Amino acid sequence: MTMATFSVSGMPVLVVGAARSGVAAAHLLARRGARVTLTDQKADIPESADLRAAGVRLELGGHAATSFESARLIVMSPGVPLDLPEVARARALGVPVIGELELASRWLRGPIVAITGTKGKSTTTTLVGRMLEAAGRRVLVGGNIGYPVSAQVEASTAETVHVIEASSFQLEATDTFRPWIAALLNFSPDHLDRHPDEASYAAAKTRIFANQQAQDWAVVNADSPEALHMAQQTRAQVVRYGLDQADQADIYAGRGFVWQRTSEGDVPLLPLAAVQLAGRHMLSNVVAATAISHLAGATEASLAQALAGFTGLPHVMEPVGQRGGVRFVNDSKATNVDAAARSIESFDKVVAIVGGKYKGGEFADLAVPLRAHGRAVVAMGEARPMVTAALAGVVPVVEAASLADAVRLQNDLAVHYSVQQRVHQALTFYF
């Protein structure tokens, strides 16, 4: 469907979930003439007055089956699972069910650049936005980062490049969503508290390529066998980028630059001296952003300009202070085992807080990077016993009752090891 053909005027539409994406979708639908009901399990939401003023009917404190069954369209906020019994019954009655990203994309006027992957999405999306802005393009960055895409529809023009961070929760509820450039950064098990299994999580991610055509582009990490496999069925033109598999990549890093491989020889796109981010996985994000932005028309000068002063996002390898000769780094957006491993590998000697809510993965996979780079682990949260069981034989593991307790223990351990073994970093991340 296109903007010209998709209409909700006069249509009874149910939005499920009153987090920021659901609220934005409800406002968008109301502006487009739909008769909107917003339902949520919460008894009250801060946006109630604004929504009612916009003509949105609120159904709070639970879901009414009749609202699902009488709707002609159901729009799911990405935080709400698609397997709700009410949703299943509505689908059985023939009611279409889509996500907020799918809804908004049907009304976007400009080209879409969509970025997904298990880790690195936010940094890469931010960098692409900066690179295209430096190249003089009109850019709106949103999706799973910043503003919901529904909140950007009214500002969309034919010249606007929509740079969208797309999560598995958003992609699994897409139908016609078609990015001009779709990027898959990597894949490892995650969000298995929401997706029934790894295959379902992979299928959701792969939907980023589902509607692409031969004139579109798929940007894929040559260092990720899983990502390469998931992109095999795309109809788009494939551009591979990489660090470790540079000989298999169209865009790669080495010899002081990010290079583009061409039939006439390699062309330098970006000097590595411009990169101010720590960690090899962060360099991979820079190479991905370079590949995407170059496809979208960014020049070599604008690529370097965008990196000037960019030291990363909050909670992503973020330096937060120094005490007693120990540097503290907040990488709390490393919310899965693979991301945690890449973080640990980025430093010399590390005391790491690991734990929080368990979302899948094997903590034993941290053993190799911890043997090489770790000095101790502080385990916390729901995953605490699993962390201890998996890693106690690898490095010393202490358990914390709370985040505050974990930070105190981490500081004590880091100071201890800084005296004993010259520890230079204490790394914080939690699932």
- Would you give the CATH topology of the largest domain? UDP-N-acetylmuramoyl-L-alanine:D-glutamate ligase
How does the overall form come out from the CA principal axes? globular
Q: Approximately how much beta-strand content do the residues carry?
A: 15-25%
Question: If you compute it from the alpha carbons, what radius of gyration comes out, rounded to the nearest whole angstrom?
Answer: 23 Å
Structural class category: alpha/beta
Number of helices: 15
Q: For the residues shown, what is the average pLDDT?
A: 91
Can you tell me the CATH class of the largest domain? Alpha Beta
CATH architecture of the largest domain: 3-Layer(aba) Sandwich
Q: Assign a percent range to the helix content.
A: 25-40%
Euclidean distance between termini CA atoms = 38 Å
How many separate domains? 3
| CATH superfamily grouping of the largest domain | Mur-like, catalytic domain
The strand line-up of the biggest sheet is 7-8-6-9-10-11-12-13-14
SS elements, strand count: 20
Tell me about the largest β-sheet. Answer: 9 strands, mixed
Stretches with pLDDT under 50, minimum 5 residues: none
